[in-house]
Fold:
Amino acid sequence: MKYPFSESELNISYEKPGAMPGLPPTQEFTYPVSQREGVIATYQREPIWLIAGSEVSYFAPKVHPDNVARATVMDGSGMLAQTDGPDMFGVEWEFVPAAGGSMVRPGNPMLKDANDWESVIKFPDIGKWDWAGSKAENKAHLSKGKFYSMWQLNGFFERLISFMEFENAAYALIDEDQQDAVKALFDKLADFYITLFDESLKHFPQVDGFFIHDDWGSQRAPFFSPAVAEEMLVPAMKKVTDYIHSRGRYAELHSCGHLALQVPNMIKAGWDLWCPQILNDTHEIFDLYGDKIIIGVAPTGPTSVFTMPKPGSEAEDIAAAESFTERFCRKDKPIVFNMYSSMMLSPAYRSALYKASRLKYQA
Structure:
């Protein structure tokens, strides 16, 4: 009852075009608090409304070489597209238009045996990066009242893939002769990420959270067993999430694949939020684990990540939004609306979802 709902909140304060041609526009309402405060309230398990995507602004500054190499710059300089080049460890990436993203140039992995990592992998000197220039460039960009989440591509397994290529990296996780070396590399990476995040917060104190990529699975199953993930990945991840929480920030894992079996490891690793691809059964994952980790819940059951039901009539969309809210908007198990689904929402569905969630959480 701290923020009683008013119909005036449904007034559209801002509307931006759909994420892709043909998709509905994204509307922002006249919220009772800033969008940033709304997201933080959800992380603190005191949700005010159902976060549906536009409240979060992902921040991938150009000062970070990975963002340039991976063609994922999102900052005050504007998006850089189709860029090739080395990441911060010197791994060469190439933009592949057909894939809509960048890949390591294959055939010559930097690291062929994990036991050699200390002599092969050169950690970057982040003190040489133009932090002051990036801070000035992003002053206006980071002043829009959003929840700013800073990207970190290539977390641990993804970073190992970039060093070794996929087959060698997957084998190194289970090879008794390489496992100790992999653990040591992951621990060193964790320390490095902590240093990187600490430096980032000095220059970008507006950052509220970190969005860390580490894909763990395919369309059908995880790449490795829960036991392997618990032994090889959880300790290093927990080190990083503990640091993020010590700075009063929040940790979101981006991990693609069919990963229901790995959710207990995400919880052990200290992640606050995971938004699954919608090939997962997000409803079942919510039922099993929603009291321990915030899940990005989709409006339907498992389906292709690229396929969503077409909007119905306005009355059908309103009814569907209200039904979704009744099922999933619980203060003891807060959620966010699945990011893969949110871009598909019709204006009627989005408006009904906002109002129904406000009333449900208020009650």
